[in-house]
Amino acid sequence: MDLVMKLPQNIWKTFTLLINMAKSLKLLISPSSKSITAGELVYTSQNSSSPEVMEEIGKAVAEGNLQKVIGIVKDEMQSKSKYTVKIAVTGDSGNGMSSFINALRLIGHDEEDSAPTGVVRTTQKPARYSSSHFPYVDLWDLPGLGATAQSVKSYLEEMQISTFDLIIIIASEQFSSNHVKLAEAMQRMRKRFYVVWTKLDRDLRTSTFPEPQLLQNIQKNIQENLQQAQVREPPVFLVSCFSPSLHDFPKLRETLQKDLTVIKHLDLLETLSHICEKNINDRVESIKRSIDADSLQRESEISDPDNMKEIQKVFQEIFGVDDESLRQVALKMGRPDTHFTSREFQEKLSNQQNDWTKWLYQSATQFVSKPYNFMKCCYHRHHSRHMQQKGILDETAGKAKAVLLEILKDSIPHP
Ligand SMILES: Nc1nc2c(ncn2[C@@H]2O[C@H](COP(=O)(O)OP(=O)(O)O)[C@@H](O)[C@H]2O)c(=O)[nH]1
Ligand SMILES: [Mg+2]
Question: Is the pLDDT assigned to residue 345 strictly greater than 50?
């Protein structure tokens, strides 16, 4: 399978998106974070890489040592797999937060390790639970809002919401102003969050509407409340805590598993893609300066600057995407059958070579027939050679980015 050939259309978009997200994240961390408009899809998580690791990867990319990049990225991803994701379950008291945690953990409500539930206010302080169904996840059962006179702001501070990676807002019976305020706060804090509507069994029992209509009404009601507060709609799941495998529970579990992978690795992916992009771009700019200054031939020991095949080979070696390096990369990735050398890519380059030859021939004819055009012709020839070299450089850098993206994607462990 030729992976690189398929990259520019679909995966490259993802790569660019990740880079943009990384840039947004940078803005977010910096004091000038006001420049990000509310509602942009950027989330904060507590999971990040050390500056030493980032520097090491940047250096390996700059050296065109993709094998080294694979090693570092794999180690880093592996260590991120052990990062414990913190999930907060919050809402109005009595909505079924503790019951939801038990249902998610697929345990009953009266077992030794169950979260205590009941009609009276049972959860007084945050309690941590874990589940073998979600390894490396802490589920925090928080005391509900409603019963206290506390403002949402002070409640969130007291619960240290900023330290969580994902927040699940539990609602039932009605989507109250507290739920809206919680959702607003999550959006403001750029926290990934879900809305889970519980007690669906009761709604189904008491409603006069047919089931599809009822489900639609509940969804619509939540949606409208959030829209009024200009909150972008989060994933919404309608469940009964007494039926942990019915209604939206399967969808919820699936979404959660995916998001756990994202939380564990996205931060790292963003940072790494940013580092790769930056280092490659810096290298490209510096080579372009050499091209403009006509010093490329000397610096890179090129014997014939008009030989585009030679130029291509030199650039490929600089970025570590020559055939031999790519074979080693595929081996190191444990995918020896991966052919990073794309025929389309080669054909494009050879077309450039042909164009170049054609142009040389035309120029030569022009030079013979119109000697007074000599200066102009030389300028054009020079300029065109530079353009050709830069074209090959951009192609090679693009290929290096594409291969790096494959390396990054490949390093994410599947859930
Ligand atoms: N019918 C029904 N009752 C529920 C459901 N979830 C929770 N409850 C009940 O609602 C009450 C409050 O539940 P609890 O989990 O303690 O709420 P919390 O205060 O939000 O933690 C208890 O009596 C639960 O049995 C549900 O999905 N369906
Ligand atoms: Mg509770």
Answer: no
Q: How far apart are CA 345 and CA 332, in angstroms?
A: 23
Q: Which of 89, 122, 124, 241 to mutate to test the pocket of ligand 1 (most atoms within 8 A of CB)?
A: 241
Q: Does residue 187 have its Cβ closer than 6 Å to ligand 1? A: no
CB neighbours of 246 closer than 8 A, spacing ≥ 6? 239, 240
Cα(349)–Cα(308) distance, integer angstroms: 8
Query: How close is the Cα of 162 to the center of ligand 2, in Å?
Result: 21
**pLDDT, tens only, 119-147:** 666 667 899 999 999 999 999 999 988 75
Residue 33, SS3 per DSSP: helix
Q: Which domains does the chain have, with CATH numbers?
A: 3-34+280-411 (no CATH), 84-247 (3.40.50.300)
Residue type for position 11: I
pLDDT at 408: 84
Q: Which of 280-284, 332-336, 395-399 has the lowest mean pLDDT?
A: 332-336
With a cut of 60, say whether residue 5 has pLDDT above it: no
Record the pTM: 0.68
**Measured between alpha carbons, how far is residue 251 from residues 78, 79, 198, 239, 398 in Å?**
27, 28, 14, 10, 37
Indicate whether residue 99 lines ligand 1 (CB < 6 A). Answer: yes
Enumerate residues 6+ apart whose C-beta is below 8 A from 351: none
Helix (H) or strand (E) holding 383, with range, is: helix 374-411
Q: Is 120 in the pocket of ligand 1 (CB under 6 A)?
A: no
What average pLDDT does range 35-60 have in this prediction?
65
C-beta 242 within 6 A of ligand 1: yes
What string of DSSP letters covers 252-281? HHHHHHHHHHHHHHHHHHHHHHHHHHHHHH
**CA distance linking residue 185 with residue 231, whole number of Å:** 9
Own/partner pairs, 371-376, CB within 8 angstroms, 24+ separation: none
Ligand 1 within 6 A of CB of 244: no
Residue with CA closest to ligand 1 atom 8: 96
What is the C-alpha separation between 227 and 233, in angstroms, rounded? 7
Q: How confident is the model at residue 376 (pLDDT cuts 50, 70, 90)?
A: low
